[in-house]
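Entry 12.
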Amino acid sequence: MAESNLQSYLVTVNTETYALTQPASPTYPMVTYTGISDEAKTNLDGSVYITEAKFRVDAWGQTYSSAKSIANQVMSDLNGYAGDFQGLDVNFIKAIGVEETYDTDLSLFKIPVEVTIYY
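Predicted 3D structure (C-alpha cells):
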C-alpha cells in the first residue's frame, strides 16, 4: 500500500523515477526504488497495531554531487516525518543513508537510502 505513496513523493524529488530497474535509455540523475517488505505487526489477539513497509531508494548520477543531492533531499524530507504522506496517514518515517557506491560498468554513482514507513 505505501509503495504508491512513496512513488508519488519520489517523482516530486526527481521526475526520472522508476520501480526496480532503469529504463533502456535513462536520463540522469535518476531514482529507482525497490520494495523490501510490507509487514503488518500484530498484537497477541491478532489485531494489527502498525504496518512497517521497507524500501530501498537508489539515487543515480553521472556525478557524485548529483546523486548525493537527491539522496540528501530524500533523507531530509522523510526522516522523522509523520502525518499525511501523499494520501497515507503515517505514524513515522525513517530514512537512512547506506553504503555509497560507484558502478564502474555503468560509470555511475549510486547513493542508496533505506526508507521505512510506519503506518
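Annotation: The longest strand covers residues 48-61. The helical segments are 2-13, 64-78.
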